[in-house]
Amino acid sequence: MKHKLLFSLCSLLLATSAQAEVNISGFASVVAGRVIDGTGVAEFDLGPTFLADYPLVGAYDEDISFKPDTLFGIQFSADLLEGLSATAQVVSRGADDFSADFEWAYLSYEINEHWTVQGGKKRLPLYYYSDFFDVGYAYPWIRPPADNYTWQIFNYTGVSALYNYLIGEWTMSGQVYYGSEDSDPNKLLSDFFFLENTREVWKDIGGIVVQLNRDWLDIRLTHMQYTNERYIGGVQQEWNGNKQRTGKFYGLSVNIDYNNFLFLSELNRLDLDGSNLDTYLVTLGYRIKSVMPYVSYSDFNDGEGGEVHHTTSAGIRWDFHPSAAFKIQYDDVKDDGGPGMKVAGDSQSISLGVDLVF
């Protein structure tokens, strides 16, 4: 079915190419890695494991593997003239056995120079790098720190309005959005946490993003809320006797790219019916011509006795080509979760690969 959808999209774009300009671009990451040492989680019968990609359960063990972080993506964009355009993105991931899925499929209409409305399937814009999560070339690490980029839902289907204004010497941009997502089965919850078919439903997703940029300083604020339902093995889960719970997400990013110095930070909080889950990351890098060494620290804290883990990373990015970068990264994970709340245990791992855009 997926191959038929991809063929149909390509046929449609080719058929309309006489009336509209169709642009095709792509990106890829070829990454290998392994766990050097780790404790695993004995109570879950899990050996030494590094969970590199939470949403798609991209996990390394003690054997060298190319699957967890390797992916290939193609984006089609058709300019239908008079402000109307169509965009579709197909991504094939090793963590998902290289099946090809539509990550984005939406229409855009440019109302004026400041506002654009969109409708369809898009990436949920929770984090600074959410829109570029699959494009490894766009950031310094092998992958965005998993302690921070850890959601089980990462897409939504709905509508959004993007805006862009110049205020003095500042550029203000962002979006407001509304939609929903029904993930059945949800890969993270089904394959890793509950080990049985789990359906994750997010209703009434609504959010706003405000981003301010001036020269070397970039500040991003975001807020999102949603209503959550969950079905495990076909049975609806309850939280304190309720079949639904409300989540409210708050995020702040402050990034500095000044001369050769790079500073990246994100601070987030999820309020789930009064219970707080906090994550943050800090990254420091320094460019030496085409090479940038960096260090990073990220943290996930679900409260005392809950899910608690943090990662210290060090790596090097080498831009050996105008459209490609080689990276090598070491990750040291400490899993301090309470009884029954450990994720994958402590681990030390190494990964290296090439990111490219075309």
Q: Strand tally, please?
A: 19
Q: How large a portion of the residues is in β-strands, by DSSP E?
A: over 45%
The SSE string, one letter per element, is HEEEEEEEEEHEEEEEEEEEE
Name given to the CATH homologous superfamily of one domain = Porin
Could you list the spans in which at least 5 consecutive residues all have pLDDT below 50? 1-9
Descriptive overview:
- Residues 1-20 form the signal peptide.
- It comes from Shewanella decolorationis S12.
- This protein is mainly beta and 358 residues long.
- The chain has a domain at 108-357: Porin (Beta Barrel), CATH 2.40.160.
- The chain is 6% helix and 59% strand.
- The chain contains two helices and 19 strands.
- The chain has helices spanning 2-15, 187-193, and strands spanning 21-38, 50-53, 58-60, 71-79, 84-93, 100-110, 115-123, 155-167, 170-183, 198-214, 217-232, 235-236, 245-258, 261-272, 275-286, 291-301, 308-321, 324-335, 347-357.
- Strands 1-4-5-6-7-8-9-10-11-13-14-15-16-17-18-19 form a 16-stranded antiparallel β-barrel.
- A hairpin with a 2-residue loop joins strand 10 and strand 11 (217-232).
- The longest helix is centred in the N-terminal third of the chain and has 14 residues, at 2-15.
- The radius of gyration is 21 Å and the shape is globular.
- Residues 1-9 have low confidence and may be disordered.
Q: What labels describe this entry?
A:
single chain, mainly beta, Porin, 16-stranded antiparallel beta barrel, two-stranded antiparallel sheet, globular, disordered N terminus, signal
